[in-house]
Amino acid sequence: MAKTAPEALLSVRDLTVEFATDAGIITAVDAVSFDLQAGEILALVGESGCGKSATALALLRLIADPPGRIANGEIHFRDRELLSADDATVRDIRGNRIAMIFQEPMTSLNPVYTIGRQLGEPLQLHKNLRGDSLLAKCLALLESVNIPEPRRRLQSYPHQFSGGMRQRMMIAMSMSCDPDIVIADEPTTALDVTIQAQLLELLQAQVANHRAALLLITHNLGVVARYADRVNVMYAGRIVESASADEIYRTPRHPYTIGLLRSVPRLDQPISEKLLPIEGQPPNPLDLPSGCAFHPRCPLAIDKCRAEVPALTRHANGHAVACWVDVRD
Amino acid sequence: MGKYIGIRLAHALVILAIVVVLVFIIARIIPGDAIMAAMAGSVDLHDPSVVERVRHQYGLDQSIPVQFAVWLGEFLRGDWGTSIGTGQKVLDMFVQRLPVTLELFVGATLWSIAVGIPAGILGALKRNSAADIAVTTGAIIGVSLPPFWEAIVLIYLFAVLLPIFPPSGYVPFFEHPLLNLRAVVLPTFVLGTHAGGLLARYVRSSLLEVLGQDYVRTARAKGFSEAAVIARHALKPGMIPVVTVIGLSWGGLLAGAFFIEVVFAIPGLGRMSVDAIFQKDYPVMQAMLIVVSLNVLLVNLLVDILYGYIDPRVRVRG
Question: In this structure, which of A205, A292, B128, B228 has its CB flanked by the most CB atoms within 10 Å?
Fold first, then answer.
């Protein structure tokens, strides 16, 4: 188990999120622990359904209840524990100290209100800005994310914005109260590939300017390589490997991470070399395999993998991995 | 927005023109002859010259297109003809009765909004609670109650057992406002019951749908309290389908007015229509059909404009 670094801005311990379905209870996030340091970019990587979005939503207690429920865990942010805090405390942090950018720019903005009104809401709520000072701040925010004609654009409705513009507006909105942490849940997945890089550059520059930490939820290892300082790889609701981005690329130690990396095309790779998909299907969350959830798909699995769940164990260089097998052997 | 309203208005005018033509044609092709019926007792219908004279007097011996042109011209000038049943000017009959029925419609709509919208919101916010079950059950009862039966029960309860309201009758508002309001409480409630039940159900399901939208989650992520999330981000988009239901209900109120005005002895358009239909009173029926269509068209136009106001996406589509 990773130890709490003293300077951690956000410490998540044993976070467990369950969803009730007709077929039974799904444990979407299973005793996840990690730290987020001030100013760093931490990527949470995994296939869809691995629990990374549920983790992100749980940090701000935004899991829809029902059907979801945060069953266990602690989330320490500065001197507060968010899961036991009262609603008013959490509301005061939302959009203010911890801001969120969602996956779907098309549906995450209210269609019946103007961009200006929605952009200004966190400032009204948390900074008590009104009138001219609010307008001036909103104009500056839109300018900072390179939206042309900001004065006119404040009067626009979301449907008059392209997907990329909406997501830039979301970035601007997330920065409006100078947050300590920005959580971006697959911020570019719904957008054209051509503007994904542009948006991520913008996001990176914005969090750097505001000295905010970024928790970047993504399934895209290319994005991770380019922007993240550290990486947590999730599989079936658990973190299976955690290391700096360099370490993950140079010396991945979990067979799942290795599989993920092999399935991504690389420019420096000879064309003759084939991409290797990971064999099998992601496990059914209602009926997870015994032991390590990855063992049915793992080429290196031994008997112990079928019987016991490996704990996330820390090695040199802060590299932690949850695997019974040492892949270097 | 101006262009959008212009387009809606043009649509409404085209439909009105079609309605006017249809109304005229329908009145000519339904079987039976008002002249024959009206004159049966007073003149000798076996004398062709008498019949011919009467037909000539009413212009019925001319070709259909000429009859239409004459009728339309007179209609537009405010000459809506003379009622065969009462001998009164048709326009005067409408001017007398329209305010009465309008008051019923407005009252019924206010009832349905005042009861249906808060009930629907309550049901959505307290989903699956006892309050929600009460709302959905009440809504089904409201939608399925036959108005004449509800009227009789309410008259028995609130005019006979507890004599709070008069059992029937009508006093014009400007004659005696208080008596007028007392007289319309029961009829407007009965008339608005169906729409109220419908509204409660639509508001509930529409708001539930909106509360599941991503933008509501965005509002929560901004730090708004649940009450602020609903007031600032859920209510307005949730009202989009509700406006349509209010408009449709308004159009359907006339059917209810047929019963209500008879049961409560209210001298409005509903009772006049029933009388006109039984007496094959063509001038009144024709005017009635046009007024009814105009009513539906105007309400739809209003709904469309409100739509454009609530939902900016509609304005662009036009």
Answer: A292
Task: State whether CATH 1.10.3720.10 applies to domain B95-317.
Answer: yes
Amino acid occupying residue B41: G
- Amino acid at site A284: N
Is A196 strand, coil or helix? helix
**Cα A176 from Cα A140, distance rounded (Å):** 10
**Distance from the first to the final alpha carbon of chain A:** 23
What residue type is assigned to position A184 of the chain?
Answer: A
pLDDT tens string A284-326: 888 888 888 888 888 888 888 888 888 888 888 889 888 888 8
Q: What is the pLDDT of residue B42?
A: 64
Q: Determine the pLDDT at residue B35.
A: 62
Pairing type for strands A320-321 and A313-314 reads antiparallel
pLDDT of residue B196: 95
Residues of A in contact with B215 (CB under 8 A): 107-111
Distance from CA of B233 to the nearest CA of A (A): 7
pLDDT tens by residue, B216-235: 999 999 999 988 999 999 99
Q: Round the CA-based radius of gyration of chain A to a whole number and report it.
A: 21
State the Cα–Cα distance between residues A155 and B64, nearest whole angstrom: 56
Domain range summary for chain B, segments of one domain joined by +: 2-76, 95-317
CA distance to partner chain B, nearest, from residue A194 (Å) = 25
pLDDT-derived band at A4, boundaries 50, 70, 90: very low
> What residues of A are in the B interface, CB distance below 8 Å?
60, 62, 64, 87, 91-96, 99-100, 102, 104, 107-113, 121-122, 125-126, 157, 159, 173
Structural contact between residues A63 and A57, judged by C-beta atoms closer than 8 angstroms: yes
Measured between beta carbons, which residues in chain A are less than 8 angstroms from residue B240?
112
Task: With H, G, I as helix, E, B as strand and everything else as coil, classify residue B162.
Answer: coil
pLDDT at position B241 is 85
- Collect all residues with Cβ–Cβ distance below 8 Å to A141 and sequence separation of at least 6: A119, A172, A173, A175, A176
The ipTM is 0.88
pLDDT for A205-264, tens place per residue? 999 999 999 999 988 887 787 889 999 999 999 999 999 988 888 888 898 988 888 877
Burial status of residue A41 (CB atoms within 10 A of its CB: 0-12, 13-18, 19 or more): buried
Q: How many Cβ contacts (< 8 angstroms) between chains A and B?
A: 71
pLDDT tens digit sequence for B285-307: 888 888 888 888 999 899 888 88
Q: Please indicate whether, in this complex, the C-beta atoms of B312 and A95 are within 8 angstroms of each other.
A: no
User: Are A247 and A317 a contacting pair, CB within 8 Å?
Assistant: yes
CA angle, residues B275, B52, B286, in degrees to nearest 5: 30
Chain A residues touching residue B233 (CB < 8 angstroms): 110, 113
Indicate the residue of A104, A122, A157 with minimum beta-carbon distance to B222.
Answer: A122
